[in-house]
Structures are given as structure tokens and as C-alpha cells.
Design a protein that fits this description.
It is a single chain. 44% of the residues lie in helices and 22% in strands. The chain has seven helices and nine strands; from the N terminus they run E-H-E-E-E-H-E-E-H-E-H-E-H-H-E-H. The strands form two sheets. It has a five-stranded parallel β-sheet, sandwiched between helices. Helix 5 runs antiparallel to helix 6. The chain is globular. The chain binds guanosine-5'-diphosphate and adenosine-5'-diphosphate. The site of adenosine-5'-diphosphate has 12 residues, from helix 1 and helix 5. Adenosine-5'-diphosphate binds next to helix 1 and helix 5.
Length: 181
Amino acid sequence: MGKLIVLTGPSGVGKGTLLKLLLENHPEIYLSISATTRSPRPGEIHGQHYYFLTKSQFAEMIAAGEFLEWAEFAGNHYGTPRKAIEEQIAQDKIVLLEIEVQGARQVRQSFPEAWQIFILPPSVEELEKRIRGRGQDTEEAIEKRLQKAENELAVASEFDIQIVNDDLNHALYAIESAIFS
Ligand SMILES: Nc1nc2c(ncn2[C@@H]2O[C@H](COP(=O)(O)OP(=O)(O)O)[C@@H](O)[C@H]2O)c(=O)[nH]1
Ligand SMILES: Nc1ncnc2c1ncn2[C@@H]1O[C@H](COP(=O)(O)OP(=O)(O)O)[C@@H](O)[C@H]1O
């Protein structure tokens, strides 16, 4: 059997950046593609970054039990389609989920053998700088993400391992060590 790795932590902490580098170094890792009701950002592609769904399409998937986990985050829904994950794990693959904290908690219940990594920012000030620096969200979306971050950081210790994303390469190395050791 393969293994399930969950990468979680507040929005803007650098999960997506770390993930991209991790996949470049380890193309054998299978990255789960989530479904969301959020609108695509410029350059985001349906079926590659997310499956961009309407609220009713998302609700149908919930009703059909097609999500391993799903959560509401900053006014939109996000969920992990179950089928692809189960297929990849059955094929001995390392499967990676990049999801927010509520969803990661659900995975802990339904898939306790998953290994859960929480990415921390060097400080809350730096987190805000990164979210703003990305320049892709409205002020309202930024405020929602920052409010959420406070509660999320408070539960970091629930997860198997905590990694501070200060120096990007140090954080990447720590993630690789956690996955492959
Ligand atoms: N629970 C859950 N969270 C997800 C899923 N996909 C993405 N997320 C999380 O939803 C949050 C918002 O994602 P997004 O709108 O892409 O914004 P960003 O992370 O700030 O770039 C992030 O914390 C993601 O990790 C999913 O399938 N399930
Ligand atoms: N170690 C780091 N040092 C400085 N900036 C970083 C670091 N990691 C990520 N960033 C920057 O922070 C912003 C948010 O990163 P992103 O990967 O989009 O976060 P997330 O996926 O967790 O929301 C991006 O502009 C990214 O370039």
C-alpha cells in the first residue's frame, strides 16, 4: 500500500510554493486535485489547479459521498475527491493533499494512518506580508484568510510534525525528510 501525506497550515504560509518544489524533485508523488466553488484566479486551469465547480455541482458530490473530506473556507467550499486517492494508494503511490485545517482534521478521523505536516510562518506579520505580496486576493478575501489564520495556528500542535517555512529550502528539506524517512 502507498501512503497519504497531508500538508496543511494557514493560507499564504507557502504550501503551494513548497508543493511545487517538492513535485519537481519527486515527480513520482501523486498530488490530489481538489474541487472548489472558488472562482479561478488568473492562470488557474480547470482540472489542473482545481476542479472549479458550481455550488450545486459541489453539493451533488457531497450527497453522493464522493469526498474524502470537504470544508468551507473563506466563503467557498473545497473538497478532496475520494476515488483518485484510493486508486493511487492502492497502486503503492505516495499521495499528497494540500488542504486547510478543518479538512485535515477530518482526514485524521477517516484515515488515521495519514501523515500530517503543519506548515508554520516565521511570524504572523510575515504571513500577512506573504498573502498581500501574492497580490491575487481582494481585501475582503485577505481579511478572511488572516482571521482564519489565528485559529489555525492555535491548533498546529495537533498535527504529526510542524515545519516553519522561513528559509524555503530548509523547509523543503524538512518536508522531504518527513516524507521519505
Ligand atoms: N479542506 C480542504 N481544503 C482545501 C482543499 N483544497 C484546497 N484547500 C485549502 O483551501 C484554502 C484556500 O485555498 P485557495 O483559495 O487556493 O487559497 P490559497 O491557499 O490562499 O492560495 C487553502 O488553505 C488550501 O489548502 C480541499 O480539497 N479540502
Ligand atoms: N520561505 C518563503 N519566504 C518568502 N516568501 C515565501 C516563502 N514561501 C512562500 N513565499 C511566498 O509567499 C506567498 C504565498 O505562498 P503560497 O505558496 O501561495 O501559499 P499558500 O499555498 O500556503 O497559500 C507567495 O507569494 C510565495 O512566493
